[in-house]
Amino acid sequence: MSYISKLCQENKRVLVPFVFLVLSFTLLCGRAAAESSQQTRQPMTLAEAVTLALRHNRTVESAYLDRLLERFDLKIAQDEFLPDFALFSSAAQERTTGEALHRTEVGGEARLKVPTGGEFSLTWTQPVHTSQDDQWFDGLGNDVILSFSQPLLKGGGIQVNRASQVLAEYEERTNLLRLQETLIDTITQVVSAYRSFLLAQRGLEINRLSLERSKDLLERNRILIEEGRKAKVELIETEANVASQELSFMVSQNDVETKKLNLLKLLDIDRHISIEPTESIEVEPVQMKEETLLDIALKNNLEYQKALVILKVAQTNLLLAENEQRWQLDLEAQYNMTDSSAYTGDASEGESDGAGDYLVAMKLEIPFGDESTKRDLLSAKVGCRKAEIDLKELRENVGISVQDMYRDIGMKWKQVELSQKARDLAQKQLDVELEKFKNDKSDNFQVVSYQNSLIASEHSENKAKIDYLNTLTALDRYLGTTLEHWGIDPANAPKVELP
User: Fold this and answer.
1) pLDDT per residue over 356-386, tens digit each?
2) How many CA atoms lie within 13 A of 45 on its CB side?
3) Where are the alpha helices (DSSP H) in 227-301?
4) Which terminus has fewer CB within 10 Å in the chain: N or C?
5) pTM for the whole thing?
6) Which letter does DSSP use for residue 94 in this model?
């Protein structure tokens, strides 16, 4: 048996199972392709994908629902120094000296807390009916008392009494940062998924063109064999290459479907919708300065902004803890604004009728033996110091991260340039080799090798471009400028209604 015959048999033993695998895979993917072809393809840009995600994504919807409670909590805190009103009534039954009596009265109270810590109180009590003498009262103004209290040491001062409002404002800032983080993460995930889908789609197109080139080469070989210019053994190598390209094409089809479903999952829309990315993979170098990026990061980076808020909260808690160490010294005043004799009818000459009565008092309370307040003060000091340390460390880390991302972006652009150059050279090599093949100055092995080299370089070029774009998106996320880039204001949350 000749060497060529042995080579043919060995190639057939390898080729037959391989071709069987390709055919089986083709049948499975062919059915999926047939089902997909029945669907109407809906073109989609990256901006449309981001818009759909912000409109339908359930994580984003949950974040906006949380804002309903968060805004209400802020409103409650802001209303602390607004007056509060209450109305009340009472009906009493009593037995005195063997006689059963009952009394019915109504009243009201108004309270107003002022930023200094003081509190005004206006109390009104009006009897309606008493069983004694079966008397009904139709006048107004009985027992109207104005009271005022003001802490002079512990609990006094504008800073201490506005602390709850300040903490609520810090909490609102944290909530907004959390919402921004949710929106930025969602947008970043959608952008990455869209580009992965786009890369898979372009990879499918590359493999389709490669498969067509392989089939053209196979037809050329058959013609050359019929003309006696090539040996039949060279046909096996070309057929194997066609089978390999068919497998790559089918794998690419499956990859496209996987990437499409990943994107639909983020968009939270019907998975049966057949979308098609319409963006082109085009990149341009971005001019930027490292110092400018650092300034932007310190102004907008979400983690750094959270650390600033944490430090301010710790400082406010320290202020409250120091306030708790003071003695309790309060000023209290009370003034009776009405004459009660008109309702009792028993005011004797020379006796006070109640109108104009007043009370002024000072109350002092000195605590002893309570170590918990000292422990709270120590805890507040430790928390404040740790917040300062964390902020300083985070500031240094931001500088390092910006420097690293700036360097990485430059490296990614170099990779784009080199991949474009490699693809151009691979295309030229293949064109030259095909021309040589037409003139019988090359063989199948060389042509197939250069075809595979072109395929690899085309995939590498697209991947390098997508990596560069994703690196810019990651920089946007780290700088905290993603929402600004897409023109989204988280403060203008969409109206969410509960069922």
Assistant:
1) 788 999 999 998 878 888 999 999 999 999 9
2) 3
3) 233-267, 290-300
4) C
5) 0.80
6) E
